[in-house]
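TICKET: design request
STATUS: open
ATTACHED STRUCTURE:
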């Protein structure tokens, strides 16, 4: 009986250790974006964007459902001032299972005309844009999703169909900040 009890406690400790290490594992930083056999999904995010955080579960579900089908997902941090530490903090809180890309020079944001977070771009395996737009329309519908744009695009792509709405204009979200020189200084600070 004592041996069974020790075996049980040992098993619980080992499993707890594994779960703890997974929960606190350092997120993987990508140096390049590599499409899977069906393509890549770039999700432009910001470490302090509440709109990104509001899509936590939807993105989690899309990664879990579509990652194994040949789509590689990446979070892309394009704001000025985003650092590896901020990206890691973001991932510890949001829990997404994908690598992140620090776009500190803004080249990816410029290349794919990303202006807001969260904005998504889906590429085919050759790097051509199949979809560019928001995750959904929840920002303009008080949290209700009437048009899951990204989900629909992924369904079309995986069914080898033409994406029904390949370009959807931004529908709110947080601006990607690239140039702070154009932001006016508050009068109380300019004295």
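STATUS: resolved
RESOLUTION: sequence designed for all positions
ATTACHED SEQUENCE:
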């Amino acid at each position: 009986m004592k041996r069974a009890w020790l075996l049980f406690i040992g098993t619980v400790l080992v499993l707890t250790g594994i779960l703890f290490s997974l929960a606190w594992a350092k997120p993987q930083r990508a140096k390049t974006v590599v499409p899977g056999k069906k393509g890549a999904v770039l999700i432009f995010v910001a470490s302090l964007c509440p709109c990104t955080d509001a899509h936590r579960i939807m993105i989690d579900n899309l990664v879990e459902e579509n990652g194994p089908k040949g789509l590689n997902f990446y979070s892309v941090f394009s704001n000025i001032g985003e650092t590896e530490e901020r990206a890691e903090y973001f991932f510890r809180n949001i829990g997404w299972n994908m690598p992140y890309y620090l776009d500190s020079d803004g080249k990816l944001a410029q290349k794919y005309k990303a202006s807001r977070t969260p904005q998504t771009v889906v590429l085919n395996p050759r790097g051509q844009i199949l979809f560019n737009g928001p995750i959904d329309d929840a920002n303009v519908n008080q949290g209700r999703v009437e048009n899951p744009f990204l989900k629909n695009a992924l369904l079309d792509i995986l069914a080898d169909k033409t994406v029904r709405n390949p370009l959807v204009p931004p529908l709110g979200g947080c601006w990607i900040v690239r140039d702070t020189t154009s932001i006016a200084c508050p009068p109380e600070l300019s004295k």
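CLOSING REMARK: Residues 18-23 have pLDDT under 50 and may be disordered. The chain has one domain: 39-179.
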